[in-house]
């Protein structure tokens, strides 16, 4: 039975989603840094973590202490086909169910080195513009570049729907998880 939502958030977007989900599922949400003080080892949880350079932050540590039933990860990129498969590959997720949500950028909350990494990401995404002009970048990539340069949020409650659908199917199999939706 899933008992809690554990999350790691750097600038607040993952935390915001965790709070939304906590309300919808009537489950407590807890920052990963407090999981050991708050929960017994081995309980079943949903893990939510922001993506930093393709890696889901805090996941490995949480996996050592808790039993993770599903992972929700929050990033800035617009997902392309194969995106989830790549996340599986980079994070050794085996057969864990993984869901991706778009968060946002708050430049004022980032360290200098984090800004540098993001600037490089933006430069790479915007590279085709140098060769072929503005028409050569997709709208989705343009939005990401713009968010990286000026901050932006993609957080909305509807983004949780795919996960909620999965969660409901799980609770039909296991009636002890009773979501309050
Ligand atoms: C240093 C750095 C690296 C990042 N790498 C990725 C990445 O590889 N893929 C992605 O989709 N988003 C990436 N992002 C974007 C964050 O995952 C995104 O801003 C997310 O919403 C942050 O969530 P938080 O506010 O909970 O920390 C990166 C952000 C930073 C600062």
From TrEMBL:
A molecular function annotated in GO for this UniProt entry is:
FMN binding
- Origin: domain of life: Bacteria
InterPro entries the UniProt entry points to: Flavodoxin_CS (IPR001226)
Which PROSITE patterns does this entry report, sorted A to Z?
FLAVODOXIN
- Official protein name in the record: Flavodoxin domain-containing protein
């Amino acid at each position: 039975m899933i008992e809690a939502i554990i999350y790691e958030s750097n600038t607040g977007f993952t935390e915001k989603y965790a709070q939304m989900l906590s309300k919808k599922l009537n489950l407590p949400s807890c920052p990963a840094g407090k999981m050991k003080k708050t929960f017994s080892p081995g309980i079943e949880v949903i893990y939510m973590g922001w993506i930093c350079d393709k890696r889901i932050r805090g996941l490995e540590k949480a996996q050592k202490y808790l039993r993770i039933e599903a992972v929700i990860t929050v990033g800035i990129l617009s997902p392309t086909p194969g995106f989830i498969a790549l996340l599986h590959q980079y994070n050794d997720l085996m057969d864990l169910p993984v869901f991706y949500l778009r968060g946002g950028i708050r430049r004022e909350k980032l360290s200098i080195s984090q800004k540098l990494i993001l600037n490089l990401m933006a430069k790479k995404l915007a590279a085709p513009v140098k060769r072929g002009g503005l028409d050569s970048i997709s709208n989705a990539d343009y939005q990401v570049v713009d968010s990286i340069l000026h901050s932006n949020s993609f957080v909305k409650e509807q983004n949780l729907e795919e996960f909620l659908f999965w969660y409901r199917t799980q609770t039909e199999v296991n009636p002890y998880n009773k979501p309050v939706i």
